[in-house]
Amino acid sequence: MSQTWKFGPPLPPVELPETSHAPDWQQARPASIARALKRALERPHGNWYVVDASRRLGEAPRLFRVAGEDLVAWRAGGELLVAPDACPHMGASLSRSRVCEGKLVCPWHGLALGNEGHGAWGTYPVHEDGVLTWVRVGPEAPDTPRPVLPPRPSLFMEGVIRMEARCDPEDVIANRLDPWHGAHFHPYSFASLSVLDLDDHVLKVRVAKKLVGRLVVETDATFHSPEPRTIVMTIVEGEGRGSVVETHATPIEPGRTAVIEATLATSDREGFRHALKLNRFIRPFIERSARRLWVDDAAYAERLYALRKGASA
């Protein structure tokens, strides 16, 4: 860090745990990552899955495959509807429908389908949290009538990426539960990363993120899993305190996962409220940075999947 210039408020000094002075390959013990992953997978989820950014879902029908089921999503009078993609008449794909008065009109025989359903065909429960859209595929769980959401800042700029990886959701979560790979796997983004605290529920890191050239911003951040298919990074000290990055892993089918990552950036700097008006111009930069990281992290998750499947073969 001696050859870098720091941007933002200084962080409080901390005494690093003795283990943090060991090489990263010694700190990153597979057994500890596996224990944290096991804790995450045991949490309730209520069969809720993230679909995509809500702002990307409009009146035009869109096809999604979630947990092995083909779904069609569209808006009717501003309300988002999600239903089976197969027409109940003869099975035509409803994502190819035109929409008339809020109803899907089947492209094969003109059957109009909407919120009232048709026989066994009907819409799925949907939840829009202000940034992302969730759908419940499977029975309702009494303890999770709504998705399990982490705390979010009240004011934020947001960017959401969605990409696919050849792995299962647990491989995506395992990637996020291994902070020790950050500075090695993403040297273009991180100058350094130290683990400050670690248990099976929350881990805390101090990271120096590269901005431009030798300019870095230091922050303390925590990682936790509120439900089995989500990892949340929260900045708790430093520039952007209160900002969160939610990484959601939605199964498409065995061996295929959609990674939907929402960045909610906030600041207590004067003028941030005015800067919010520029969100649509800043969003592409937020999403470009997140996508670059996930090109690498998807390869990490895919490698975990291949090793896991090879070991079980």
In short:
Helices cover 21% and strands 37% of the residues. The chain has six helices and 17 strands. Strands 1, 11, 12, 13, 14, 15, 16 and 17 form an eight-stranded mixed sheet that branches. A three-stranded antiparallel sheet has the order 2-10-9, with no helix packed on it.
Give a verbal description of the structure.
With 313 residues, this protein is α+β, with helices and mostly antiparallel strands. It has two domains: 5-43 and 148-312, 2-Layer Sandwich (Alpha-D-Glucose-1,6-Bisphosphate, Chain A, domain 4), CATH 3.30.530; 48-136, Rieske [2Fe-2S] iron-sulphur domain (Rieske Iron-sulfur Protein, 3-layer Sandwich). The chain is 21% helix and 37% strand. It contains six helices and 17 strands. The strands form four sheets. Strands 1, 11, 12, 13, 14, 15, 16 and 17 form an eight-stranded mixed beta sheet that branches. A three-stranded antiparallel beta sheet has the order 2-10-9, with no helix packed on it. Strands 3-4-5 form a three-stranded antiparallel beta sheet, with no helix packed on it. Helix 3 packs across helix 6 (279-312). The protein is globular, with a radius of gyration of 21 Å. The N and C termini lie far apart (45 Å). 35% of the residues are buried. The model has no long low-confidence stretch (mean pLDDT 93).
